[in-house]
Amino acid sequence: MEIPFYKYQGTGNDFVIIDNRAHPYVSLTDHKLVERLCDRKFGVGADGLMLLQNNPDYDFEMVYFNADGYEGSMCGNGGRCIVAFAHFLGAIGEECRFIAVDGPHDAKVLSDGWVELKMVDVAEVEEGEGFYFLDTGSPHYVAFAPDVAEIDVVEQGRAIRYSERFKAEGTNVNFVQADANQLIVATYERGVEDETLSCGTGVTAAALAASLQSGQANEKEGITDIQAKGGKLQIKFTKTDNGFENVWLCGPATQVFQGTISIEA
Asked: How many CB atoms lie within 10 A of CB 163?
């Protein structure tokens, strides 16, 4: 079987995307196929894989798989990339509304390739000893550090992800450094089980957690610049008495290449 695919990246977070609307190339239960396509040595190679699917109530449906072959929780950079892909195909205009695993999302495609994605509202943020824990479409553990460059992200991230509290369901782990007018963020992602160059839901969690730090507690409207290892992103949000709403993840989404891959039936 010949499967046409597209490769996209958003600040170094890379994805295989397949147009599954007219022809069901990939089944939702074919975990081995998804894992193979994401394999960087024997497949196309990616942090995750997405299917663009029809949905009668939305412009499209996004189905996201982690690199391990199984459906994952919401992927923010993946959401921005699949919006750019749908726009490339002519399936949407400059604005759209689509459905993902965590619910509906609005998105905008700007003329310079910048894609803005509305994220879920966040009603609860747990503040623990030296960390914040919140769900921005995916669960995130956020820890602040004086110098992210000195952290072994894989070793320390994996220790938290497989700790007694989190080992059953897993969590993504973000190490955050406040630097001048931006945040520097490094992320260990569950499902990938490694550090990634960027994580959309992770930088969103970092920005919201940072706004709760002393000195920013009274700010209601927030715009936070983010430096991930793969590039720059921006988070916009409104703080309410009950959490955060009107949260937008903004940044570039770029097509890397397209092709076909032969898979034995």
From this structure: 12
Sort strands 95-100 and 114-118 into parallel, antiparallel or unpaired: unpaired
pLDDT tens digit sequence for 181-206: 999 999 999 999 999 999 999 999 99
- Name the active-site residue from 75, 81, 96, 250: 75
3-class secondary structure per residue, 186-254: EEEECCCCEEECCCHHHHHHHHHHHHCCCCCCCCCEEEEEEEECCEEEEEEEEEECCEEEEEEEEEECE
CATH 3.10.310.10 in the chain is located at 2-116+253-262, 125-249
**CB of 17 within 8 A of CB of 52?**
yes
Nearest to 204 by CA among 244, 242, 241: 244
Q: How far apart are CA 165 and CA 252, in angstroms?
A: 35
CATH tag, 125-249: 3.10.310.10
38 is catalytic: no
- Establish whether 75 is a catalytic residue: yes
Residue 165 pLDDT grade (very low, low, confident, very high; cuts 50, 70, 90): very high
The CATH code of the domain at 2-116+253-262 is 3.10.310.10
Rounded CA separation 34/111 (Å): 32
Q: Which of 81, 96, 199, 250 is catalytic?
A: 199
CB 131 within 8 A of CB 143: yes
